[in-house]
Amino acid sequence: MVATRRQRAAIPSDEASPLKSLPDPDVLLKTPSRNNKPNTSQESTNNNGTTTNISPNQHDHAHHDHRGCPAHILKDALSESQEDSTPETSSSQLRSCLILTLFLLITIFAHPGSGFNTPTIHTVFYYGWISAVSTGLGVLPLCLISNMKEYYIGVSNAIAAGMMMAASYSLFVEGCGFNDAADDSNWSSGARTALGCALGLMFILGTKSFLERNEDVKLGALSGADTKKILLIVFVMTLHSFSEGVGIGVSFGGEHGQQLGVFISASLAVHNIPEGLAVAIVLLPRKVSKATAALWCVVTSLPQPIMAVPSFMFVHTFLPVLPVGLGFAGGAMMWVAIMELLVEAYEDTDLITTGVASSLALGVMMKIQSSLDDHH
Q1: Quick one: where's region Disordered (predicted)?
Q2: Both 187 and 308 in a single domain?
Q3: Contact 315, 254 (CB under 8 A)
Q4: Are 59 and 179 members of one domain?
Q5: Quick one: pLDDT at residue 376?
Q6: b/e 320-341 (16+ beta carbons within 10 angstroms → b)
Q7: Could you write out the DSSP letters of every residue in 257-303?
Q8: Is residue 149 included in any domain, yes or no?
Q9: Quick check: 258 and 252 in contact, CB under 8 A?
């Protein structure tokens, strides 16, 4: 032992011998570090001077320089740090449940009653409210799903894109075919729809540019790319609800009055359930709780009762701009469906899976809308 220690003492230090300071390739592969800082994990030195690692624990890994770590290690670390925010997630979920309970109480106690053949502001608001609240039911089919793999997240994005493309097509058709005797605009409905589509594209591109310039955007416990994606979806679906709210108010204020208004509201309520499903499919894989996802679904449809009342009160004022609003919402929604959701779905799955999932969702949504139009 004495001879060995003397031999070690005679060996030059790392500063005196550049060759000695070169790291062993196996060690470098196991614990890479861009700054060449000494490894803080446990080590053992053999008699020949070779250094090897002895299974460092997780606590030691926490002190390593993450800039030199492989991508999958950083991804796991980030996911673990997000899962550590349990108190914030729990409080957010509790708050969402309380707000949903308030919405339910409003739905129960705000009923206008029966026996009124002439629509009132109270009646118009309530049926617009029912249409908005029904969007939250879109979360119910996903309540049994806890965790989703990356592949199925891509499939869900493709399904949401297909639903949104079908909704956009329906808005374009409704806007271009708009024909009402009280519409006194000099522009054709097709031209106004095209104008609204161009404005919608400009708006969503401006919104996306704003979100990209602000890297610190946060939404509850979410931040970064997930927050930007969620905000884009919420913006687009909310814009889409403005035109639907105008449609509800105009239907109550038309010549058919209460009967047509109730039917349009009921049709939109059924139509909003798959739209809520499309929103929930995007939110739930991004660590949003089911209660919060249901709340966001309802929030995206709140413009319906809000816009229904002034549209009912000032029918002749809102009729000329209705095709513009339909085109605006359709253009923005189509851009997000194709340029955001489909692209992300393709990155997480493959071309065939993305095409099949989005096409099936598009076909089913178109069939639902066609059935509602036939009954109308």
Answers
A1: 1-67
A2: yes
A3: yes
A4: no
A5: 57
A6: bbbbbbbbbbbbbbbbbbeebb
A7: THHHHHHHHHHHHHHHHHHHHHHHHHHGGGT--HHHHHHHHHHHHTH
A8: yes
A9: yes
